[in-house]
Amino acid sequence: MVIVGGWAHRLLRYHPLAQVVPHDPLLTLDTDIAIPVTLDTDIAIPATLEGSEQDLRGRLKASGFEEKFLGENQPPATHYELADEHGEFYAEFLSPLIGSEYDRDGNRRATTRVAGVTSQNLRYVDLLLNSPWTVQLSRENGFPFETPKQVRIAHPTRFVAQKLLIHDKRDRRSRAKDILYLHDTIELLGGSLGVLREEWNRLRQELSHGAIRTVERAVDTMFSKMTDDIRGAAQAAAGRALTPQAVQELCRAGLKIVFAAESADIRK
Questions:
Q1: What is residue 109's predicted lDDT score, i.e. its pLDDT?
Q2: pLDDT tens column, 158-190
Q3: What is the 3-state secondary structure (H, E, C) of the chain?
Q4: What is the pLDDT of residue 85?
Q5: Are 195 and 17 in contact (CB under 8 A)?
Q6: Contact 190, 19 (CB under 8 A)
Q7: Beta strands at 149-153 and 133-137: parallel, antiparallel or unpaired
Q8: End-to-end CA distance of the chain
């Protein structure tokens, strides 16, 4: 299981390669967790009581999470909500959508059951499951754990590439927030862009030529001129002295380094 989305970006600050930045991360009340569709057969999750085994749903319920069902898909999309003294919080599970978006009966393959939980099927989630980074969370960096915890988060190269691949399918507000995530990821890892580039060279082997072109041309298709999405990204950075021009320039510079095309045939 790999934490992706906004909380992956938030936890990236605790990786050794992350630089110190003078602002707080974007606040999000949900955690997106990527899981493979074979999770229920790949691992057994031990329970803490009576030596029996629990699936993932059982672990969540035992820890105080409640299910909230959404939409009309079968199984229904589900938020796993937790309310405590720190406020409300929920988790969502995401699995790779491989093949057709619809089954033989014409029904949309929107959700699936994995290890007892309902997971949403989305394109390019498989990218986020591979090559995750690990961060350690403990009292030393502000987390209330008696012993340090190891948490897997999406590799930042794959995090950025996935944002670029789904950009056109996102609504306007989400596109603006995603661009701010791109900007802040490049800012956090500005001294290690070569490391991100190395991962892109590996990731290219997993993608179709069309997906490679989408990622490598993003510097031109998304940041060659000022757009409302870029302006929206600057506005989403509430309380920060961040201009649309600064967002555009940093994203262009960083994406050029990380995702530059390797050969002329990719540009065709």
A1: 86
A2: 999 999 999 999 999 999 999 999 999 999 999
A3: CEEEHHHHHHHHHHCCCCCCCCCCCCCCCEEEEECCCCHHHHCCEECCCCCCEECHHHHHHHCCCEEEEECCCCCCEEEEEEEECCEEEEEEEEEECCCCCECCCCCECCEEEECCEEEEEECCHHHHHCCCEEEEECHHHCCCCCCCEEEEECCHHHHHHHHHHHHHHCCHHHHHHHHHHHHHHHHHCHHHHHHHHHHHHHHHHHCCHHHHHHHHCHHHHCCCCCCHHHHHHHHHCCCCCCCHHHHHHHHHHHHHHHHCCCCHHHHC
A4: 58
A5: yes
A6: yes
A7: antiparallel
A8: 36
Residues of the chain scoring pLDDT < 70: 39-54, 85-87, 262-268
- Indicate the domain borders of the chain: 2-153, 157-267
